Amino acid sequence: MLSVETRNLEYRYGSGHRALKGVNLSLQGNDPVAIIGQNGAGKTTLVKHFNGILRPTSGNVLINGVDVNERSTARWAGTVGYVFQNPDDQLFLETVRKELEFGPLQMGLDERVIADRLERISGLVGLDDKLDVHPFDLTATEKKFCTIGAVLMMEPGIVVFDEPTCGQDMAGNRRLEQIIKTLARQNRLCITISHDMKFVTRNFRRVVVMNQGNVLVDGDVDEVFSQPDVLRRSFVAPPPITKVGRAAGLKETVFTVEGLMDAVKRQKESEV
């Protein structure tokens, strides 16, 4: 079973800032997980430990039971794929094709295997007609999907997305949702940082809320968003429809208009 575990994980930057303060977290299986919280909560610092980009100041990070310090970041790349928030930090080759093929080539994969993956992944990320385009000539949305495709080409068992909806339009968000579902069907673990609570509530059953370098709450999405005091402490605003349901006195936590109407109906029937 795929797993990421942190044990009393602490991290201090060179400035002395203590970004993580003894985080204990266990993520496993293929159910997608969202990590949320305000800027500076420690979300990106945390996930950068999952493939060794950052190394613990103290404590441990175990990937599938192996301490992250036992391997280099380059060796972890085939197990834990990390998609940066800013695609310009990840793109460096002359064509989309070369970007997508780079990882598998470094892994020494057979040309036929790479060609098969290229066909599948370029279609999944919507770039099958842009393979010979320079990445910097792509739109912001296309650049993001180019970096996602480059990571997926290595078929890591664990995939980390850092703010994938940033700058995305509705079509881009739908494509992201399809990718997350595809990863789950392929029995891969998807871990996503996001400030988009509509996107989170649509796509993730498990939500981890961080605040000031700690895990504030970790649980089912309904449980997490039924705790307004906790959300306020983490400076997370629930989706507007969730606020409407709470203001209406609903006992259930709702995330869609349809869910709101159904919850109202059930509550009225229970009161009869």
Automatic annotation (TrEMBL):
UniProt GO MF annotations: ATP binding; ATP hydrolysis activity; ATPase-coupled transmembrane transporter activity
Pfam families xrefs: ABC_tran (PF00005)
Hydrolase as UniProt keyword: yes
Residues covered by the ABC transporter domain: 4-237
GO cellular component: ATP-binding cassette (ABC) transporter complex
SMART domains: AAA
Disulfide bond listed as a keyword: no
The EC number(s) this enzyme carries: 3.6.3.27
Highest taxon listed in the record's lineage: Bacteria
Keywords attached to this entry: ATP-binding, Hydrolase, Nucleotide-binding, Transport
Signal peptide: none
Family: Belongs to the ABC transporter superfamily.
Name this polypeptide is given: Cobalt ABC transporter, ATP-binding protein cbiO
Source organism of this protein record: Bifidobacterium bombi DSM 19703
